[in-house]
Amino acid sequence: MKLTTQSQLARTPTAEAIETYYASMRRFWHPVLPSEQLVDGKPSSVELLEEPLVIVRLNGDLVIMEDICRHFQAQLSLGEIREIPGSGECLMCPYHGWTYAEDGQCVDIPQLSAGREIPSSARVPTFHIQERYGLIWVCLDPNPAFHLPDLPHLDDGTYQIGPLRTYAPWIASAPRVIMAALDDTHGPWVHPGLVGNRSHPLPPEHRVWREGQYLKVEIIMTQPNNATIAESNDDSAVREVAITTTVGIPNTIHFDIRATDSSDGRHTLIWQAVCPQRWNSTLTFWGSARNYDHDKPAYDVDFEALQDTLREQDRRIVESQRPWLLPPFWTKIELPLRPADLPLIEYQSWLDELGITTAV
User: What is the dihedral of CA 236, 238, 243, 247, to 10 degrees?
Assistant: First the structure.
């Protein structure tokens, strides 16, 4: 068998590999934009799986279309909302005024000769769209593989919800970003003194299982005694935390963190959802919540600064990983080890079943 060299791994994936990745990811819901960034009365442009898209509210409804006018391919996101009798609010192209209704059908062409009808082919594709957790989510496939992912406890009203944060795109594929968050053994090396301690490098024992469209992981692990992550009165250098991780396949991850030596029921939630703008560009949305200190501001400066540090430490490592797309297990390009890497093995196995891992 011919061995794959490191120089080969560093190359851009083949066009076929990239298209396979895009096709497999179209079947899922992806977050593309914070709701607050969509200004009423104005369209916004986003990118998902290298597809240019425009989001706009028309007649009170969220609408998403290809960001390309059917006429001469101008960006509809540069246009404006226009009232059309019988159709209400519609999106007008800035180039020649072609105007599209909520279903993507063109309903007005100012240059149309008298007596001519608008061609039925004067239409732009539209897609599924929803709002939840302060984000706008999109699925490009007519039949989504799964429901919009649930992020536990964020809707139940008993938690103080922190601010929604958006990080600049990482130069990495979306599964790589999720795997970095799911990996619970890299802390001592990438985050020493924050969520890892090199005096305690052994991996935790994992309980890993599938539950509907979710991968669930339960662990108890030793961490530096950082009270901004999970409250504890223990003043020693390290302490144990219990973590329940929920991965919404393929692109969300949610952590429920609590100190094992605490009996007051305090839980800190940390979650992230990623948007695969391209095969090598991933936008990350991040948030937190807690069921204590309701009298304090939701924005905790120290906590947010810690999360920024952790993500920057992860970013430089994840952006260095090759191959860009996850290689199938049979290639043996990567060597995950049981039991330490069990959550990552189970996550990648599920992606492989869904056709998301791609040959290099």
Answer: 140
Length of the chain: 360
Q: Which amino acid would we find at residue 327?
A: P
CB 193 within 8 A of CB 224: yes
Which residues in the chain are classed under CATH 2.102.10.10? 40-139
First and final CA of the chain: distance in angstroms? 15
Task: Count the Cβ atoms, other than its own, within 10 Å of residue 283.
Answer: 23
At 107-137, the pLDDT tens digits run 999 999 988 999 999 999 999 999 999 999 9
For residue 114, report the phi and psi dihedrals to the nearest 5 degrees: -55, 135
Paired tokens of 359: 């040959």
- Does the domain made of 40-139 have the CATH classification 2.102.10.10? yes
pTM over 0.85: yes
Q: 16: alpha, beta or left, given left = phi > 0 and alpha = psi -120 to 50?
A: alpha
Instruction: Give the full edge-to-edge strand order of the sheet including 99-100.
Output: 80-84, 88-92, 99-100, 106-108
Cβ neighbours for 231, distance < 8 A, ≥ 6 positions apart: 259, 262, 264, 266, 268, 292
- Express each pLDDT in 331-358 by its tens digit: 899 999 999 999 999 999 999 999 997 7
